[in-house]
Design brief:
Elements lengths: L10 H4 L2 H12 L2 E2 H8 L3 H13 L3 E7 L7 E6 L5 E7 L3 E8 L4 E8 L7 H15 L5 E8 L2 E2 L6 E4 L4 E5 H9 L3 E5 H12 L8 E6 L3 E7 L2 E2 L30 H5 L1 H10 L8 H10 L3 H25 L3 E5 L6 H15 L8 E4 L5 H13 L9 H17 L1
């Protein structure tokens, strides 16, 4: 399989370096090689080799020199935005969010479609949604489609999915969509897609090892180590929502008892609020948040207790992975003020003293972030040193070269 022109010694650190360069140029504008190395915290040699591959693929171009204080003037590199785009889709238990994304991560359009994963025709419906998105994208070269799923995915290339929240077990999502759509399709755990997007467009531009933790209906974690997403032996790494935290706790959607998610996921918080008389069952998470904002002590205690339990569990994950930083995302961050009341103190208390100054950031949330993460899979696949994208990565590269020839 064709590989990106990056030295083998950088493989552990540089799986996403070329893609991170694209994201950097897209978000910050033209940058010199030296500044790229400094910002991404990689060696100048790694940047030089990665840039060679990007130049040969027509993804970046060299611009004017800029003045230098001694030595050779630096030459700026700019992004060729016309090189191609991608479609990203996030599948949930009741809808699919779809975005059309530029190479620099700019979302051109965003749509949401109703979806029933339990329907016998669910995959046909998903294919129809993506086919419509392809039809709407008529003015740009499509490199491929990324799909984020809330569950375990064996590999991006094959896309065999086990997702209890969707009722899918060993479902051949990738194979079906590729056959129906005729374009490269990459399927990945949805939180891992956010981790890729952070590497290209966010915190991963300045940190090579980090955790992306999501709170909402469930709890997920994307793990990036030395610039590469760690997927585990079967694609299931990062399922921290299924860390057992109580021996005889409530039943989790995975079928086990006492999982973290069964205590702090949205469903668990709503049940606790109903049991305490804080909200009516129909009020859901919106009702719980309104109650907390209005000063209801029980509502705030529910959030604080959830934050404390999350903090204890996440401290254990930090000790295992040793990240530089933790990013907290997801639908649940709208209520982070109330989570934080329990999280901050507990998280610090359970960290070893040497790790207690670890930084975590809570990023604002929007639905299309999930789908943007899925699109980022496509932009990362041409530089897939680890081979996660498999044959689909090769097909993305072929489409990239075809687009260059047509320009």
């Amino acid at each position: 399989m064709e590989r990106c022109d990056v030295p083998s010694g950088s493989a552990a650190r540089g799986d996403l370096v070329p893609s991170a360069i694209l994201g950097l140029l897209g978000t910050r504008g033209p940058v010199s090689r030296a500044d790229i190395a400094r910002i991404l915290q990689v060696s100048p040699a790694t940047v030089t080799q990665a840039i060679k591959g990007l130049l040969s693929r027509g993804l970046v171009h060299e611009l004017d020199h800029v003045p230098s204080h001694g030595g050779r003037p630096a030459r700026l590199l700019g992004l060729v935005r016309s090189a191609g785009g991608a479609i990203g889709a996030k599948v949930t238990a009741d809808h699919v969010a779809v975005v059309d994304v530029e190479l620099d991560g700019v979302v051109r359009s965003s749509q949401t479609y109703p979806f029933d994963p339990a329907s016998p025709a669910a995959l046909d419906r998903l294919a129809d949604i993506l086919r419509q998105a392809m039809a709407d994208q008529t003015d740009r070269h499509l490199l491929g489609i990324g799909v984020g799923i809330p569950g375990a995915v064996d590999s991006q290339a094959t896309g065999v999915v086990s997702a209890p929240t969707l009722g899918w077990a060993e479902t051949r999502v990738g194979q079906m969509l590729r056959s129906a759509l005729g374009v490269p399709v990459l399927v990945e755990n949805d939180v891992n897609t956010l981790a890729v997007a952070e590497r290209l467009y966010g915190i991963g531009q300045s940190h090579s090892s980090y955790l992306v933790v999501t709170i909402g209906r469930g709890v997920g974690c994307g793990i990036v180590v030395d610039g590469a997403v760690y997927r585990g032996a079967g694609g299931g790494a990062g399922e921290i929502g299924h860390i057992p935290v109580t021996p005889d706790g409530p039943v989790c959607e995975c079928g086990s008892h006492g999982c973290l998610e069964a205590h702090v996921g949205a469903g668990a918080l709503v049940r606790a609020a109903v049991d305490r008389g804080v909200i009516d069952p129909a009020a859901g998470m919106d009702g719980l948040l309104r109650a907390a904002a209005a000063g209801d002590k029980d509502a705030r205690t529910i959030y604080a207790d959830a934050g404390a339990m999350l903090g204890r569990a996440l401290a254990g994950v930090v000790h295992t992975v040793d990240p530089e930083i933790v990013v907290v995302l997801g639908e649940g961050v709208d209520a982070w003020t109330y989570w934080a009341a329990g999280f901050e103190q507990t998280f610090r208390r359970y960290l070893m003293p040497a790790r207690r100054d670890l930084t975590y950031v809570v990023e604002p949330w929007a639905e299309d972030k999930w789908a943007l993460g899925a699109a980022a899979l496509v932009f990362a696949s041409p530089f897939d040193i680890a081979g996660a994208a498999g044959d689909q990565g090769r097909l993305v590269r072929e489409r990239l070269h075809a687009g260059q020839a047509a320009r």
